[in-house]
Task: inverse folding
């Protein structure tokens, strides 16, 4: 077996699951099977059987779906844009805020009362919230042997 095939087989067999006996007691013990067919849970010593090939495929697809959703949400909701803006001329006496439009988003920028028109201020503007991608629910596919 060549290296790529061996690496692929190892990656396919490398599934992580929670021990069902520990989970029933509220513990989140995670077990990894690797190339073994059976293992003992390190906490409760329950004999655990390695998932079938069909179940492994289901686990890998679920993990892939979760990773895509997590990455998509991170891309959509990056924290803030930092901008440097000048305090506008013509604000009312004693004003410490002014309206500002950033990338089509109306925001209000606050500034210390010691600053005056023309002074530059750095502001962190929250990026416009976009609809996040929802994690799909997965139905377990039947396994045919």
Result:
């Amino acid at each position: 077996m060549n290296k790529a095939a061996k690496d692929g087989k190892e990656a396919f067999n490398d599934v992580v699951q929670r021990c069902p006996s520990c989970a029933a007691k509220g513990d989140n013990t995670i077990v990894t099977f690797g190339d073994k067919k059976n293992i003992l849970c390190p906490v409760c010593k329950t004999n655990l059987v390695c998932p079938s090939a069909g179940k492994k495929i289901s686990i890998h697809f679920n993990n892939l779906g979760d990773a895509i959703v997590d990455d998509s949400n991170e891309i959509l909701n990056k924290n803030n844009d930092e901008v440097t803006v000048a305090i506008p001329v013509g604000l009312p006496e004693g004003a410490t805020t002014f309206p500002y439009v950033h990338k089509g988003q109306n925001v209000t920028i606050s500034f210390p009362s010691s600053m005056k028109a023309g002074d530059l201020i750095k502001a962190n503007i929250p990026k416009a919230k976009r609809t996040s991608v929802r994690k799909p629910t997965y139905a377990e596919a039947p396994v045919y042997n």
Q: What stands out?
A: Residues 80-126 form one domain. Confidence is low (pLDDT under 50) at residues 138-145. The radius of gyration is 27 Å. Strands lie at 16-18, 30-32, 38-40, 47-49, 80-86, 97-102, 105-110, 120-126.
